Amino acid sequence: NLVYVLNGPNLNLLGLREPEIYGSDTLDDIAGMLDDRARELGLEIDMRQTNHEGVLVDWMHEAQAEGARAVIINPGAYTHTSIALLDATKAIRTPVIEVHLSDPLQREQFRHISYIGMAAAKSITGQGAKGYVVALEAVASGEI
Ligand code: DQA
Fold this sequence. Notes:
alpha/beta; Rossmann fold; five-stranded parallel β-sheet; binds 1,3,4-trihydroxy-5-OXO-cyclohexanecarboxylic acid; EC 4.2.1.10; 3-dehydroquinate dehydratase
């Protein structure tokens, strides 16, 4: 009942970084919130952050090797650039849920394309930190 929750570049600065866009919760706040909800849902989360694209690819492979139920991932700006993350999503059988705090479609044109979104089982945007909880609930309910 393990769920990987992966976070990409600049999300280590959450809470300080453009709070008018991303909110005031830190990544640790979100991890705490997710841990509480996971316990209620009978799931276990492994939450991580890296600023490096290849590390996200490695962790997606690891999620499958560890038999995780799902990967919840906020790839940050790699969403809009990374064919490697799209390919990793296609390469693993583990379902991938894409989460964004903001709604990229309401922002600059260069954020409108999501490569990973082309293969993700579900995309959750514009719900702030709560989006991660919504993703976890989709796993628990069997929707994903
Ligand atoms: C983000 C949206 C991306 O466009 C941006 O590069 C981020 C955060 C979000 O959570 O809203 O780093 O993924």
